[in-house]
Amino acid sequence: MAQFDVHRNPGRTRHAIPYVVVVQSAVFDDSRSRVVVPLVRAADVRVASERFNPTFVVMGDAVVLHPLETTAVAIQSFGEPVASLSDHGDDILAAMDELLTRAYG
């Protein structure tokens, strides 16, 4: 389970949030959970900014990264990855940086 792998959402919210992307560093691969960010259907979310909410296409679905809903999920809940967003890793990290920055107070 690599950083930026995309998995189907194993939770009850999978209709609105069909996928999650792993953002956790490989340094913590021994952990029994993975930190993930939801990928929300683009039609169901208002984009605050392209930097904070980049849009991707996964399995033909337009989805938006939703960092405000970042969570940890037990690894046994995941199936095989369905895609990788490693080519967009810088965009994902920029969004996470925006979430955690001190620039606004």
Radius of gyration, whole Å: 13 Å
Query: Roughly how many Å apart are the termini?
Result: 35 Å
CATH architecture tag: Roll
Topology, number of strands: 7
**Approximately how much helix is present in the residues?**
10-25%
Kindly describe this structure:
The chain is mostly beta strands and 105 residues long. The protein has a single domain, classed as SH3 type barrels (Roll), CATH 2.30.30.110. 11% of the residues lie in helices and 30% in strands. It contains 1 helix and 7 strands. The chain has one helix spanning 89-100, and strands at 5-8, 19-22, 33-41, 55-58, 61-65, 71-74, 83-84. Strands 1, 2, 3, 4, 5, 6 and 7 form a 7-stranded antiparallel β-sheet that branches. A hairpin with a 2-residue loop joins strand 4 (55-58) and strand 5 (61-65). The longest helix is centred in the last third of the chain and has 12 residues, at 89-100. The termini are far apart. The mean pLDDT is 93.
What secondary-structure arrangement, pairings included, does this model have?
Elements (H helix, E strand, L loop, with lengths): L4 E4 L10 E4 L10 E9 L13 E4 L2 E5 L5 E4 L8 E2 L4 H12 L5
Question: What structural keywords apply?
Answer:
single chain; mainly beta; SH3 type barrels; 1 helix; 7 strands; 11% helix; globular
Offer a concise description of the structure.
This protein is mostly beta strands and 105 residues long. The protein contains 1 helix and 7 strands.
